[in-house]
Amino acid sequence: MKALIETLRMIKIEHSVFALPFALIGAFWAAKGLPELRVLGLILLAMVTARSSAMAFNRYLDAEIDARNPRTVSRSIPAGRLSRPFALGFTVVMALAFVVVTAFINRLTLLLSPVLLLVLLGYSITKRFTSMSHLVLGLALGLAPVGAWVAVKGQLAWEPLWVCLLVLTWTAGFDIIYACQDLDFDRRAGLHSIPARLGLMGSLRLSRVLHLIALTIMVYLGYRYFQHWIYWAGVLCAALCLGYEHKLVWRGDLSKVDMAFFTMNGAVSLLYGVGTLWAILGQNL
Description:
This protein is mainly alpha-helical. The protein has twelve helices and no strands.
C-alpha cells in the first residue's frame, strides 16, 4: 500500500483535474451529448495510462536535477522512497497499457498513439534545450480533447483543435507562473525556461498575455458553437479565477504561487468544463 501511495504521489494523480474536463468536452462535443459509456470509459483509461507514463518518465529523467533543487529534493526518487529503475519500468508499463487501450477504441486512435506518447514523453527533454518547454506541456495537455474527439468520431476535425489551442495557452500561462519559483536554479543549472530567459516580471507579463488569448478563444467558442447561458457563466467564472490568479502574483510575490497554480487553475478547469458540458447537453436534448 505504501508503494502504491508513493507512486500516486510521484505521478501527481490529483493534477489530472487540469486536463480531464477538457477531454470530456472533446468527447461530449463529438458525440453531441453523452458518448457511449464503453468509449467514455476507454477514454478515461487512456488518459490515466498516458499521463502516468509521462509523469513517471519526467521524474525518472529529472531525478538528478530534482536532487540538486531545494524545492524538489523531497520528491520520491531524490528522497529515496522510489528508485529510478522503478520509475522507468512504470513508464514502460503505462505506455504499453495506453497503446493497448487505444487499440480497443478505434484504428485511428491506435495509429495516433505513438504521436501522443512522443509529445508526452518528449516534453521532459525540452527544458534542456528550449525555453518553449511550457508550450510543449500545453500541447501535451491540449491533445486530450483532440484524442477524445477521435475516440468518439474515429476521425480528425477542426473543432477540437480550438479547444487544444485554448488548453495550450492556458497551460503554458500557468506553468510559466509555477516555473518562476525555479528562476535562479534554472540559470545556475543551465536549464531553459521562460523565467530564466525573461526574468520574473517579463514572465508574469507573458503569462497574462497567454491567458488573455485563452479567454479570447473561450469567447470565440461561445459565439461560434456554444450559445448557451451556462457556457457564458463558465467563461465568466474562468475569467474571474484567472484574474485572481494573476492578482496573487501581480508584483512578483511568489508566496501564494501554490494557490495561484493549484487552486485557481483547478477551479478554471472544473468551472469552465462544467459550463461547457452542460451547454453541449442542453443544446442537444
